[in-house]
Amino acid sequence: MKSYLLKPALFASAMMALTTTSAFSAYTFANTDMALAFYVSGGVGADKHVYFNLGESTVYRDGGGQGIKGNINTSLIAAFGAGWASRADLFVGAAANRTGFDNDDSPPVGNQDDGRVFYISRPAAGAGLSSPVPGNISSSALGIAGTSRFGSAKNVFPLIDTTLDGAGLLNQTSHAVAWNNRWSTHAPSTGNSFTAFPNIHGNFSGTGDTVLLDIQRIVANTPGTYVATISIADSGIISVIPEPSAALLSGIAAIGLLIRRRRA
Amino acid sequence: MKPKYTILIGAFSAALLSVASAAPIVINITGATAFRDAADGAIIALLGGDNVAFRARTDIILSGTSASNLRIYRGTTTGGTEYIVRATYSGSTAGILAVADQADLPFLRTDTTMVQTGPGSFAGTLAANTVIAKPRYSFSDVDKLLSQRPNAPLGGGPVGVVPFMFVAGESAPAGVTNMTDQLHNSLWSLGRVPASLFTGNSADVGFRIYATGRNNGSGTRASILSETQYGSFTNVAQFNSTVTGNATGALTGSPFLFPDDLGLGNGGHTSNSTVRGLLNRTSNPAFRSGAYAFVSYLTVSDATGATGYVPATGLIVGGEGAKPMTYNGVRYSVDNVNNGAYSLWGFQQLYIADGATQQELDFFDLLAAQIPTNMGIAGLPISGLAVDRTGGDGGAIVPK
Questions:
Q1: Residue A144: its chain B contacts at CB < 8 A?
Q2: Which residues of chain B are within 8 Å of residue A154 when distances are taken between CB atoms?
């Protein structure tokens, strides 16, 4: 399904990307950053994963972080071929977690989340329209997901190569050890990701030119709550777009201000 | 004396002098700390046996640096070749990495004073007692496929079987007797779980079982994580504790997560002896009223020492207070390994560097031949197995 509402935003994003991609010079990943991962289940590029760092996860929790994050089209073409955005076997998902530990052994510092809070993606037909992650995930299940599974998936980041457009490239040939902890090992395209989360990946099959992933914040035994939406365009541009209700409120507020100024 | 006899005697004497003054061949080994005592037995047997071969090992602490993994031996094989064998044990996968990359490691100096019995003695700094050299051989509890150099062109292969045992700490409830793959997954993912998961007794909900174990790079750890289907490269959550006294002492303070570059809790002990040190001590009554204990895995030699477990009978005789555990309901015994019922074991590998000389290959063959009969309780000969593994470490056990 095409997201026509997003076209103007994506056009603006593309224009901005021309000036923002040069800002990415080195690939880094902090423990609380949000990871975006691309992989294919077979064919060209089955020996590669492409990662992108969406930055500090609590920024999204607090309503910030919207805008263009980068354009990794070159990296995606290099890894998965020129038709990467038309492949039904290409999957993309996102996750963030501080650690797998609870407050007893690893209490949060400052604005940090508890170690058993997760941010996880859900495919969405429109921003904010994904179904909530079920509220039956226990604290222990979040602990296992964070410590041993997503924690292991994060092990690859210090080892992989940084591409010119700011992505991280994991190559089975040159990263034989890191390959053991590739995203798809712990978050396969079928079944639960990180042993706890169902259906976190999106792909371009039937979605047209854009994949939308809602990010939901997960705490134990509670349905996921919407935080933000990641837009992945077939141009390779990655954006974070505001929640529709927030955008609507902002728009109403702006109109209100305009009316007030005109009256004044 | 006729001139021709004089010449012959002179030549013979010169030859003798030549043999006597030939420098011994120096061999540098690294790898598995868990196998070091078994390697001791094989090397000493190769170099003349007890009370013939000379040896020394740094069980002492040199100027604050623990160097108990450094060992040196000197002796002559039955074939008449004199060797000085030096070992710097750093862990299985770390050893593979060092041999594959031909990394520089500290080895004891060849002029170290060695004795025919006992460990020898050392004084001074670690640097004063060692020289930097490249290891050419490595013992490993796991296949190189589970190391950081899975494609390294190393020679060698399996030379024995190394079994392990799960062991519960001295203060653990009596019902903590068995480890399953599922319990292992929970405990090492979360770092601590209620003892009731092990005992089935709701009264044990408030008693905490803490995971502890070896560091990243340990073959023992890789073996356990493979066998339990946890994933040999998957992060774990392990705790450590300060202690007091020896095996009759106690844990002090409260358990704390091992730091590690790849995640809080993913670190671990650099040898089995310090793991054993958390299992053979009582809990600290000042923390959780003492309602906690560690659980981990050990080589059989450490496990039997810590628990007093007698593999042949299953009885407990002596020991240091730690408690033996069965694995998936089966107790460790030689027969249970050989017949396939007990699966917590791996093949001991002996690797040799790429491009080894004929002299190095000769030593490899000599050492490999000594291992099956000189491992003590640390290992079992492959020839005794009625089963095999398919698919490498952690793979299915099948009849031969």
A1: 185-186, 189-190
A2: 262-263
* Chain A closest-CA separation from residue B189 CA (Å): 5
Residue A140's closest chain B neighbor by CA? B190
Q: Which residue of B101, B145, B184, B264 to mutate against A (max A Cβ within 10 Å)?
A: B264
As a whole number of angstroms, the distance between CA A182 and CA A167 comes to 15
Query: Each residue of B329-370: pLDDT tens digit?
Result: 999 999 999 999 999 999 999 999 999 999 999 999 999 999
- Can you say how many angstroms the Cα of residue B121 is from the centroid of all Cα atoms in its chain? 22
Dist CA B163 CA B297 (whole Å)? 10
Q: Collect all residues with Cβ–Cβ distance below 8 Å to A194 and sequence separation of at least 6.
A: A95, A145, A146, A149, A150, A153, A186, A187
- The dihedral region occupied by A67, where left means phi > 0, alpha psi between -120 and 50, and beta the remainder, is left
Tell me: the pLDDT tens digits for B33-59? 888 888 989 999 999 998 888 888 775
- Nearest residue to B238 (alpha-carbon basis) of B263, B271, B213, B208: B213
CA-CA distances (angstroms) from residue B135 to B96, B109, B138?
Answer: 10, 14, 7
Domain ranges of chain A: 8-263
Which A residues, 106 through 165, put their C-beta within 8 Å of a C-beta on chain B?
106, 140, 143-144, 147-149, 151-152, 154-155, 158
Q: Residue written as tokens 């007794």?
A: B201
Predicted model pTM = 0.83
- Collect all residues of chain A within an 8 Å Cβ-Cβ radius of residue B238: none
A65 contact B CB<8A: no
Tell me the pLDDT tens digit for each residue of B180-238: 999 999 999 999 999 999 999 999 999 999 999 999 888 899 999 999 999 988 999 99
Q: Which residue has the tokens 């056990």?
A: B397
Residues of chain B above pLDDT 90, percent: 69
Q: How far is A153 from chain B (nearest CA, A)?
A: 8
